[in-house]
Design goal:
The chain has helices spanning 2-28, 30-62, 95-99, 106-115, 136-143; strands spanning 72-73, 76-77, 81-85, 126-130. It is mainly alpha-helical.
């Protein structure tokens, strides 16, 4: 019987020590625990702002007056590209521009030139290279002899 009492008291003391240890740890770290919701809210706010900024940039790129082919993403070249412009001002002279997907068709290319007040007559002949990340405006301006 004494043994049972000893075990019961021992169990109670051990349970009290565990409860006391947990309480002390919680009190010791209480200020950190209370700051956690604010930290989560701050992180969420930063993510929302970043998402809004990305959406605005995408909207600006998508609302560009210049329509372009799939070689561009958000108004910038996806990859390095070399194009060859032949003599003449007909569609066949600019075939490489359409084959490399800089512009979808001749009319789209003409509209892009007009949007920047450039003319078809000012487009240079020969082979030209453009680096990844070059804007559509820069490509068009570099194609011309303005």
């Amino acid at each position: 019987m004494m043994k049972n009492k000893w075990h019961s008291i021992n169990d109670l003391v051990l349970a009290l020590i565990i409860i006391l240890a947990v309480a002390l740890i919680i009190l010791w770290r209480f200020h950190i625990l209370m700051k956690y919701p604010d930290k989560l809210a701050e992180g969420n706010a930063k993510r929302e702002i970043a998402m809004e900024n990305n959406k605005e940039q995408d909207d600006l790129a998508n609302n560009s007056a210049i329509k372009m082919g799939t070689a561009f993403k958000n108004g910038k070249l996806r990859d390095d590209v070399n194009i060859t412009i032949l003599e003449g001002t007909d569609e066949t002279a600019f075939k490489d521009i359409f084959d490399k997907k800089l512009f979808d068709n001749y009319d789209q290319f003409l509209d892009a030139l007009n949007a920047l007040n450039l003319t078809l007559d000012s487009v240079q002949t020969g082979t030209m290279g453009f680096s990844k990340g070059t804007s559509v405006e820069t490509v068009l301006k570099d194609l011309t002899t303005t």
